[in-house]
Amino acid sequence: MSTRTGTRGEPVTPANPAVDTVDIAALLERGRDMSAPVLRAAVDRLAPPMDTVAAYHFGWIDAQGRPADGDGGKAVRPALALLSAEAAGAAPEVGIPGAVAVELVHNFSLLHDDLMDGDEQRRHRDTVWKVHGPAQAILVGDALFALANELLLEIGTVEAGRATRRLTTATRKLIDGQAQDISFEHRDRVTVEECLEMEGNKTGALLACAVSIGAVLGGADERTADTLEAYGYHLGLAFQAVDDLLGIWGDPDATGKQTWSDLRQRKKSLPVVAALAAGGPASEKLGELLAADAGSNDVDTFSEEEFATRAALIEEAGGREWTSQEARRQHAVAIEALHGVDMPEKVRAELTALADFVVVRKR
C-alpha cells in the first residue's frame, strides 16, 4: 500500500477509500448515545452527594446543580467497545455494558489523576476536587470503579466473567502507569523505554480493554480478543503520544487545559524524554533547566516566557518531531494488528478511521 506525503515531507495515513467514507462524528456519537442511558442509571445508584458530584464530573449538571450540557469527552472508548462487539459478529448493543464499564473506569482515573496532578481544569470547567473537594473526588472515583465491575458481573454469564477479568487487569495496569508517571516527576532522567512502558500502562491498557471487551461479551475466543487488544494497546500509545504533544503545544481553547500544562506539572512525557535523550546543546541546556526545576518550589510562579523557553528547547532537541513520528509508528502497528482478525470490512474501516482520528485530533 502506498503512503502519501504531507506538506512537510511527513508520512500521513495511507489512502483508503473505505476509511475516507467513515463518519467519525457519527461513530463517536453512536457510542455516546447508546451508552449514556446505562451510564446515567449506574451513576444514579450512588448515594448522595456522590451521585451529584459524579453528574457534575460527567457534565450533566453545573456546579450549582442545574442541568447542563457539558463536554463529556471524546467517547472514543465507548465507540471502540461497540465496534468490538461487531468485530466478533455480535450486535453493537452487546457491547454496551462493556462500553459503560470502561467509561466508568476511565473517569475513575480522571477524578483521581486531576487531584494528584493538581489540575484545576478539565473539559473547560473546574475539576471535581476544585468544586467539591478532594475527599469527594477520591470517593466518587472509587465508587465509579466499583460500579464498573458490578455492572459486568450482573450479566451473570461466562463471557461477563471473562470481560471483568480483562477490565480488572487493565485497571491494575492503569494504576501502575499513574504510579510510574508520578515517580518520574521526581527523577532527573527517564529513558524513552521507561516512558513508553508507563504510557502503555496508563493509556494503552484501557484502550486495549475497550476494543476487546465487546468482542468477549459477544462470545469471541481468546485469540480474537487478544488480537483486538493489540490494536487497542498500540492505538493507546499513539493516543498518548498525541496527548503529550497537546500537553505542551496544545491550544488551551481546544484542550480545556492551561498553556504548557505538562511542563507546569514537571511531567516526563515523551517529547521531554526524547529531547533529553537526543544529546546536543539544546538537550543539555534543557537537562540543566529541568534539574534545577526539580529542586525548586518556584515552578508555580514561572512566567509564560520561562515555560516557552523549555518548550522551545524540547523542540530544538527534536523531542516534538520524535513524538510525532512515534504516534504515526504506533498507529501503523495498530492498523497492522487488525489484519489478524476476520471481521466485516465495514467494521475494519471504522476501526481504521478511529485510529486515524486519534493521531490527527487537536484536543
Automatic annotation (TrEMBL):
InterPro entries per UniProt: Isoprenoid_synthase_dom_sf (IPR008949), Polyprenyl_synt (IPR000092), Polyprenyl_synt_CS (IPR033749)
Domain of life: Bacteria
Keyword list, A-Z: Magnesium, Metal-binding, Transferase
GO biological process, one term: isoprenoid biosynthetic process
PROSITE patterns, per database record: POLYPRENYL_SYNTHASE_1
Gene Ontology MF annotations: (2E,6E)-farnesyl diphosphate synthase activity; dimethylallyltranstransferase activity; geranylgeranyl diphosphate synthase activity; metal ion binding
Keyword flag Kinase: no
Family matches, as PANTHER family: (2E,6E)-FARNESYL DIPHOSPHATE SYNTHASE (PTHR12001:SF71), GERANYLGERANYL PYROPHOSPHATE SYNTHASE (PTHR12001)
Family according to the record: Belongs to the FPP/GGPP synthase family.
Name under which the protein is recorded: Geranylgeranyl diphosphate synthase type I
